[in-house]
Each structure stands twice: as C-alpha cells, then as structure tokens.
Amino acid sequence: MKKIRTRFAPSPTGYMHIGNLRTALFSYLIAKHDNGDFILRIEDTDQNREVKGALNFIYSVLKDTHLEYDEGPDKPGKYGPYIQSERLPIYKEYADKLVDLGGAHYCFCSEEDIQAQREAAEKKGKGFKFVDPCHHISVEEARKRIAAGEKYVVRQTIPAEGITSFDDAVHGHIEVENSTLDEQILLKSDGFPTYNFANVIDDHLMEINCVIRGNEYISSTPKYNLIYKAFNWDIPMYVHCPPVMKSQTQKLSKRNGDASYNDLIEKGYISDAILNYLALLGWAPEDNEEIFTMDELIKRFKIERINASPAIFDQDKLGWMNGEYLKRMPLEKFHELAMPWYKKVLTRDVDLRELSMLLQTRILFFAEITGYDKKVLNEGAEEATVEHVPSIVDFIENTLEFNPELYRHKKMKTTPENSLEALYWVKERMEAFDNYSDDEALTQMFIDLAAEKGVKNGRVMWPARVALSNKASTPGGCAEIAHILGKEESLRRIDQAIKDLQNALNA
RNA sequence: GGCUCUAUGGUGAAGCGGCUUAACACAUCGCCCUUUCACGGCGACAUUCACGAGUUCGAAUCUCGUUAGAGUCACCA
Questions:
Q1: Which ipTM value was assigned to this complex?
Q2: Residue A456 a catalytic site member
C-alpha cells in the first residue's frame, strides 16, 4: 500500500476552534498510526478574511500540542508551496483544463443577476437552484470574451442526471442524485479559487490520499468527486468527523464565545490533557483506558472506532482529565507551572512549595489559583450568565471577612463559644512553638494539645483553621496553613480572631 | 423547503443477531478514611437502547416508516 498522507488545512482566522483542533489531531493520528505523512496547508483563498498574525498563531498551537507536521509553509517539502494564495497560477491552469474536459464552464453572470433569480424564486415560495444561462456559451466564444477583458468565473458543470456516490470511513456508503447538486463557483472573478476547487486540486497534487475533515463537507463531497473523475484522478479515502457540540442542539462556536484552545490554555489547562480529552470526543479505544500519551494514541488510534454521532464537549470531564495530569506530574513540574499563577495573586512571603503540595491534588486547572469567570448556561435561558469563582488561595493574601458562624460545626462539636476557649489554648501553644516549616511537628503539636485538654482533635483544629483563614474550606488543614503563613502572620490572625470572637459574643 | 447525516443514562461511550438482568469513565448522591475541603476506598444511579412496524427461534444490534436534532444548498472555509 502507498504511504498514507493526511493534511490539516485551516484558514488563518486567528482562532483555534476545539472542533478544528480535534480534526487536526485525528488527521495526525491517522497518518502516524501508519507511519504516514501529516501535512499542514493554509487555506487563505478568501482575502477578506485575512487576519494578521494568524499564521504564526497556527504554527504555535501545532507546536505546543505536538502535532508535528512533515511538510508545511515553514517546513518545505516537494509539494509546495503550502499556502494557497501562493498557488494561484496552478488553480488557473487546472480550471482551464477542467473546462476542456467538460467538468466546468465559464460563467459571465453577475452576482446581481443571480440574486435576482433567487429573489424571484423565493417570492414564488420555491426552493432556489441556480440555472446558469452561460452553460450554452461555447468555450471558444467564452475565451474570446475573456480575452476581451470581460469579468468571469469558472463554474462547475454538473451532469443533469445520474447518481454520484462515495464511501466514507465513518458513515459508510453515501449516494446523492446529481440533480440536487449546485454548480458552484470554482474560480472567483478575482482569480482566486474557492475552497471547493482549491482543496481538490491541492489534495491531488500533494498526493493526499486520506481526507479527514468535518461533517459539514459531506454534502459537497460528491461535487469534489465529480472533479476528481473529470480529471481521471484517484479518489482519496474520506473520513468525515462528527461535529463537536456545546449542547444537543448547538455547535461549539466562536460567535457564542465558546472556549477555544487558547481560552483553555489561558485558564490553565495543560495542552496534553486537552489533546487527550479531544481524542476521546468521537473516538473510543478498544479497552477501558482513558489517559494516553501521544505515542499511545498513535498506536491505538483506528479509524473504524470513530463514532458517527455528534459529541458534546464536556467541561467537567476535561476538568477531571486535566486534574489527573496535574496529579501525575512530579511536584517540581507542578510547582514550576503554578508559579506564574501565584505571582498574579500572592505578594506575601509564604512557603509556595508547601502550597503547591497542597494544591496539586486539589485543583483541576490553574485558574483556580487566581479565580476566574465561569459561564453558566441555565436551563432554558438564552444568554449565559457569568459567575466569578473566587481564588482558592484568597485567604492567604487577604484577611477575609470574619463570620462567627463559621466556628459552628456539628461533627467537630464546635461553637463560637467553645472555639474562643480553644483559640486561647492554641495561641499559647503556637507562641511557644517554633518549627513552623515542619508539617508533622506542627500537626503533632495540635494533636498533643487536644489530648492534654481531653478533647477530640477537631475541637481545637477546626477553630484554629477557621481563625487562620476565615473560610469554611481551605486547601489543607490548620497545620498546613500555619506552615504556609509562618509564625508571625499565623499568630497575628489568631489574635485577630480572638478579638473578633470576643466582640461577637459580647454583642 | 430539497438533499445528506445522526439517534444507547445528565455527559463521553462500549456494544456489530444469542455470552447484556447494557461495560467503562465523568458528573451526581450515599458511606468509609480524616483537623475542613480534597485525595483515596466502597457503593447507588438506563428492567432498557427516540418511537412504531417488520425480518428472526431470538434484535440495542438487520429492514422500513415516524419523530427529533444537526449539516448543506455563498464569488466562506
């Protein structure tokens, strides 16, 4: 069998859609599974949509996701150039050839003409299908008019009758009647090809023999096949991937402000985790494993196991997977990644390594350190509401608002009253204690204290933790927090808590 | 509206005609561990595969229809 060649062909829009990235991943995996080539091609045939810097953006995303391509604009191969706007003469040449072969014709209709036809049809309440009057202009005459400077487009010629079919690796055999196909424009009046034409020409010229793309191209695939046939070229294998949805009825989209790859990175998700999660959207391995390295994915990925139905993007599961990646990495690595996030919210001189140790098993993604905005789509509501999730470590930097009710805990058997008593004990012990960087010694100190007073651990530890944080839940218990805060600050907070509690109880 | 695709729990999904009284994972809810939260451990969570016919000794699995959703019908990709 010939070496498999797949391609990823994004438009430079400056935005990496999750569904798009997933298509790139699948293309990469399919190629590499069989030791094939993965090509990057830039589809920039619409000059109106040019976005500056978008090219570098694509390179950088592919780089940090480790989707390494064998050929691309910045990695020349023998099929270049890999940017469509640099291939204009090629498309012109093949368009003319296709006209000669009877697969296309020149058309001189203006957009206004067509628009008028469409409106007339709509008025009558009929479905519109453009019937091109230029069909009957002979090639010779058309070329004369073109030579004379008339504006024109090249339009695909579709046989009036017959059926065009193709086989899709995920959807099976698909048949369409030619009469339902539109005679789409192949070469625009500005001399640029449309996507519909350029992708066929390029795929053939670049010897792409396995085309992996989104589901939305299924309906135009028969038209592409007609072009392949007119040229008498080999038809590639097709793999049409189901869409990635945000809900049953809505696609994930930029317009709705849905998460893109970059948004996820900005929230502190790990790129490996994102890719791992994406692989599982619409694809399933043979066994029950879910956490895979890229190499494992390459080994296991089989086209037959791509699911045909749409997949809903589940933030919760992504979060879980990201958490798994965080837990599995060495503490050193976690600490290094967490550092920039700490810097955004913590200026106090505290033991950040200790903090990393506590956070590694507790956070799902790094933005939990700084706090973040979360979009909540309520049942039936059109607009998502934005909720701010506070930082998980906010109590370290700032003294949070005092609330005596936090001291009341049924299971710990604590009340504001007996907490005040416990805090006197705690204050005395902590003043006499010095080894704040030793978690075990610190914990032992609390345990001994409880034992001496003849109470359960919780009776002294719960009040201590609340006094140190003013929070119902914190990463780590009183010993860890005292460690992080250090002796001086810890004592300051205990004193403050005692004062606050006294005031509250007197009032 | 025409054409095309899809349909297993809240989510991702396994299942490919009998081994299924439907795996596994996320979420949720219990319980245990425990100085809170988390981690970890244990357990609960679809009598049923959108619905209706049909084929078959036997169907989530095959066929047809219905319904629902999505895609497409641009000088966008």
A1: 0.94
A2: no
